[in-house]
Amino acid sequence: MIHTVWEGGESVKAFLSHSSKDKEFVRSVAKELGRQYCIVDEQAFSTGDELKAAIETRLDDASVFTLLASRHAMKSDWVTFETDEAFYRKFRHTLARSLVYVIDSTVDIETLPTWLRRAVIKRENSPKVIARDIRHHLDRLFRERQNPFLNETASRWENHSHSASLRPTSFALASRQQPPAQTAPLARATKLHIKANRVPFPAASFKSLYPKGRNGLR
Q: Tens of pLDDT along 157-174?
């Protein structure tokens, strides 16, 4: 069961950024997720300024920014405005999470805003699966706010969380961190090398080099 209000009195909700051309898909996600857990902008406004003000207010109320990326969304000026405003709030640490669900196979990840390429990115076109995944992040965020000691770990996790199907595996770190089975022989060899330098000089060799003893040289 998901919780949306923690003891501090703040709500934990996801802002669903999308193109109006994908509204039926987004409604399905919101229905599966539960309207009390998400913020979906579907109201009509007479002026652009009213819409901007409404988006800013609703982003202020959100804890998770979720982009439903389609070819329509990537061309939408309003989605661009929402992602820009979300970045500003992410920078101010008022947004705790950023999620991207690529719902259109034609969308190239490189077309996403640079800061969102570091978010949790998944290719998924099932509203039910997307809603379940968002609920998972909301629930985890709720638990982290109940236990502040989890915040640092969660932040570190988000910065390194990427879908394996979208980003190639990095081997740079793995190459620097050899398994114990590979490093052990090296450590033993190093110890042997140190010990070898400490082995006393053989008596016969010492006499042949220094016939007059330690105080004399050949």
A: 555 544 444 544 333 333
